[in-house]
Every structure is written in C-alpha cells, then in structure tokens.
Amino acid sequence: MAKQSAYLADPNRLADVIAAIQVMGTHKYYKQSFAQWSTMIEGDSAQATHWERLFRDHPEFFRVDKSGQRASLVWRRSYPKTYDVDRQVRLTPDELKASPDGTRLSRPPLGGNEITSLIKSAIDMHSRALEHEKDRRWWFPIVSAGLAAGMGFAGAVLGAFIRGQN
C-alpha cells in the first residue's frame, strides 16, 4: 500500500508549511534549532518536535543539518553567506573582503516573489496530494455497488431456495 502524502498527514499541515516558509524565508538567520524555529513560528519552544517532524517530512522545502539539530530553508541554503545580520544588509564582494573579523554573516533573506513561489508550490503539492487520494478511491463506489448487487442476488437465490424447501 502506498504511503500517505505528508500533506495529508495532518489537517493543519499546509498552514504549518506556509508559516515555516514565511518565517524561515525572512528571518535574519537562515538556520536555527527546532526549538528556536518553533518559538519564532508559533511562540512556543515546547512544540519543537512538531516542527522537527514537519521539516523532516518536507525535504522539498526544508533541510536538517548533518548534526540533526538545526533546520533551514533549502532555497536560502543555496545562497552564499553575504548577509550582515547586525546591519541587516547584503554585502558586496568588496564589502565582504573589507569586513572586520567577527562580522556575523548569514545567507540573505528571500524576497517576496521567492516566498510567494514557495507558497504556491506548497499549495500545488497539497492539491495534487488531495487529487491523488481521491483518484486512489475511484474503485470504491463500483465495488460497493457490486457487493450490494451481489448480496441482493444471493438473498434472492437464498429466498427462492427456502421457499422451494417449504
């Protein structure tokens, strides 16, 4: 039997994926612990295991680091570390060379169009999962009708047999 889509595992899954994309796409740090993301997304670090599961279930958007302790948004990971988190500006190559030791760098936040694109992808994947689930059940009404007809026929045969015995 095929595994159920991660998008259908929880009725709030799509909303959680969208929330994570928005927060992880715009926060000054691209990679945080599950508890830190949990606090930023819903204000409760105690929900860290929920968010860890979500990040692991959706590798199309999120990655967990080699230590297994922190997560990031895939699209942001593709960018070089050119974002000065203290000044909240993207540095040019010359500014990077001239930046003093101790400058805290991250990968730049995503723009509105990039976040919109990721959200649209999540909605499309959710819609496809729903459609696939519906398509997997095409046979159910046919089999149910066939069973009902078969039971009706068997009942008629049994009734005729019983009447014939009397």
Rg of Cα set = 26 Å
Q: Mean of residue pLDDT?
A: 88
Beta strand %: 5-15%
Distance between the termini: 49 Å
Structural class: mainly alpha
Shape: rod-shaped
CATH level 1 class label of the largest domain: Mainly Alpha
Query: In order across it, which strands form the biggest sheet?
Result: 1-3-2
- Note the run of SSEs as H and E: HEHHEEHEEHEHH
CATH topology group of the largest domain: Arc Repressor Mutant, subunit A
What is the second-level CATH architecture of the largest domain? Orthogonal Bundle
The profile of the biggest β sheet is: 3 strands, antiparallel
| Overall tally of structural domains | 2
| DSSP E strands, number | 6
Helical percent range? 55-70%
Question: Can you characterise this structure?
Answer:
This protein is mainly alpha-helical. The chain folds into 2 domains: 6-78 and 112-140, Arc Repressor Mutant, subunit A (Orthogonal Bundle), CATH 1.10.10; 79-110, no CATH class. The chain is built from 7 helices and 6 strands, in the order H-E-H-H-E-E-H-E-E-H-E-H-H. The strands form 2 sheets. A 3-stranded antiparallel β-sheet has the order 1-3-2. It has a 3-stranded antiparallel β-sheet with strand order 5-4-6, with no helix packed on it. The longest helix has 27 residues, at 139-165. It starts with 12 loop residues before the first helix and ends with a helix. 17% of the residues are buried. The model has no long low-confidence stretch (mean pLDDT 88).
